[in-house]
Amino acid sequence: MSTKLEINEEVAQALSEGRPVVALESTIIAHGMPFPQNVDTARRVEQAIRDNGAIPATIAVLDGKIKVGLTNDDVLKLTRSAGVMKLSRRDLAWAVSKEKHGATTVAATMIIAEMAGINVFVTGGIGGVHRGAELSWDVSADLTELGQTNVAVVSAGAKAILDIPATLEYLETLGVPVVGFKTGDFPAFYSRQSGSQVEYRCESYSELAKFITTKWDLDLKGGVLVANPIPEEHSMDHAVIEEAIQLAIAEAEKQGVKGKALTPFLLSRVKQHTSGKSLESNVALVLHNAEVGAQLAREIALLKSV
Ligand code: PSU
Ligand code: MN
Q1: Domains, the chain, ranges and CATH?
Q2: From residue 232, how far is each of 190, 192, 253 by CA, in Å?
Q3: How far does the centroid of ligand 1 lie from the alpha carbon of residue 160, in Å?
Q4: Among 27, 91, 274, which residue has the most ligand 1 atoms within 8 Å of its CB, making it the best to mutate?
Q5: Any idea which ligand is nearest the CA of 31?
Q6: Where does residue 235 rank: exposed (0-12), middle (13-18), buried (19+ CB within 10 A)?
Q7: Distance (Å, rounded) from C-alpha 36 to C-alpha 184?
Q8: Confidence tier at 275 by pLDDT (50, 70, 90)
Q9: Which residue(s) pair with 21 in the sheet?
Q10: Which of 86, 100, 159, 260 is catalytic?
């Protein structure tokens, strides 16, 4: 049995020529946003990557096949089919062996990107240490993946549904550098500040690319988390978001939602409690991350070519 990747022709060609490619996750499409905004966002993010000079490679598992680069039909399959799995590291082999459809989280997308030879990955926000993890032990496998897989992840930080200081402590333990792009603050997804700081900041793409490639040249395995704050004009009021989060967490507790269902549940409840305003911000920040990720991939490709 062969479980090799199905890399689409455009992506394979770009990789073989050393041109910049950016990986994109699919959990945000299947489980992180409602239809039809998810399909529309997936398309716009791919276009933003192209507009900034790189080739997009959205990653998912369809009928048990690991796909790198999706067609429009593939995206529709992910959003229209019933029972699309949410795949983290522990779920990948199951989905492949049972020929399931599955959307990949940050962790699973990193694994597949590395297999394909893609070193930059753009997402919205990463998973992390949940509030109350001292009792629930709910810590996203995204963090351990960042500790062991050589991919740079561009995100708008982490949602405040998480315990952000604990998430940053955990990343430190795993040896994952967190670098702010033009900021010294670790962003909290919908807002530009979380109250926590990043250890390092870079002001340009070339500075960022040099830092990331130096880490890999030193054989310090694992990723780099690039924290790119939401553009000011799309950021949300902290008090508004915090109230929505508190409500969502209380609902999750009351309904006994836990495990892999918790993050999608909280995301959808926060959306509800902000009357959709959070969704607009979400789309804006992913598009901004796409721009930064594509430019970063170009710089890294340039450094690798010399
Ligand atoms: N955070 C968001 N939006 C998302 C996710 C996280 O703001 O869509 C998704 C990502 O795919 C991430 C996953 O990798 O949720 C984390 O899930 P968990 O907490 O179950 O590890
Ligand atoms: Mn979890």
Answers
A1: 5-239+280-305 (3.40.1790.10)
A2: 10, 7, 33
A3: 12
A4: 27
A5: 1
A6: buried
A7: 35
A8: confident
A9: 55
A10: 159
Helices 277-305 and 37-51 pack at an angle, to 10 degrees, of 30
Report the residue count for the chain: 306
Structure tokens at 208: 């960022």
Which residue in the block uniquely carries the two structure tokens 């000011």? 232
CA of 165 to the centre of ligand 2 (A): 17
> pTM higher than 0.85, yes or no?
yes
Query: Residue 159 catalytic?
Result: yes
Give the distance (Å) from ligand 2 centre to CA of residue 137: 8
pLDDT for the residue numbered 4: 82
Q: Between helices 72-80 and 37-51, what is the axis angle to 10°? A: 150
Task: Using the predicted structure, report yes or no on whether residue 70 has a pLDDT greater than 90.
Answer: yes
How many angstroms is it from 138 CA to the middle of ligand 2?
5
Rounded Cα distance, 224 and 176, in Å? 6
The pocket around ligand 1, CB under 6 angstroms, is made up of 25, 27-28, 32, 88, 105-106, 124-125, 127, 140-142, 159, 189, 260, 263, 267
Cis peptide preceding 20, ω within 30 of 0: no
Between CA 120 and CA 25 the distance in angstroms is 12
Residue type (1 letter), 14: A
In this structure, which residue's CA is closest to atom 20 in ligand 1?
Answer: 260
- Which residues, in sequence order, are CB contacts of 73 under 8 Å at separation 6+? none
Is there a catalytic annotation at residue 280? no
